[in-house]
Amino acid sequence: MDDDTLFTIGALAERTGLRVKTIRFYSDKGIVPPTDHSPNGYRLYNADAATCLELVRTLRELGIDLPTVTRVLARETSVTAVAAAHADALDVQIRVLRMRRAVLRVVAERGSHREEMKLMHNLMRLSEAERRRLIDDFVDAAYGGVDANPAMVELVRTSMPELPQDPTTAQITAWMELVELVQDNDFRDAVRAMAEYQARERAAGETTGLHHDLTEAVRDEVGKALTDGLSADSAAAAAVVDTLVARYGDTFGKPADPQLRRWILERLDVANDPRVERYWRLVSAINGWPELPDMAPVFTWFAHALRAYPGT
Question: What does the pLDDT look like over 220-241, one tens digit per residue?
Fold first, then answer.
């Protein structure tokens, strides 16, 4: 276009592909006012107006609101700044839409009733910070003000469940179950009892930590016994108990005597709550971590074997 050329609203509509009604609307709103008027009072527009209209159309097609478009044309803000802000806003909208899609998939697959669907939707609307607060509240209720095993408390606080932007049906189902679990007062009381036991142990000078090697030893020894079909009160089980008691003694610096066996059994009775293992399985499912081994049968067998062979 020649910069000196003036176009009627009809000619401008033909050149830009916009409807006359749309151009007139932008003109009436002062977004792209006419450059001049003909002697008969018709609106006339120059090449700059045409360029502005092209920009307005592009911004509107990208979902930019009219007040922001006006600010861009008035050079009160830049296209770059507007694009960045709206790209961020679209990211949020995309995350919301993905979450809604995932919820609808769960509803369809589970045949959820109305109340469950409402609950599920409300839970999914929580921000990441709000979801984290649910877990923080649980940790505070269970461990707050108690000098529990610091390694365990740190593990719980740092292993936060974090739903991905596009969660699977299994992840949403796991999140719903986890929310129900951490808000269950009986479960909170059970974890609190574990924390208080750990505090008493620490006050008595017992070694704290997670002792992963010891846990793996129990899993390997008892796992083999379970695979071989050994009963916890069989003669062969006694040898397994002897081996593990000796391992506990080495780890905690204690003699492998009947007192140590009673101490191990007490620890197992306090800690072997299937809901704790369920908590970690749900966290792993939400975070997409590898599935955890099922330790409940292992610790249950070990506890039974310790009762069968308490030592002399």
Answer: 999 999 999 999 999 999 999 9
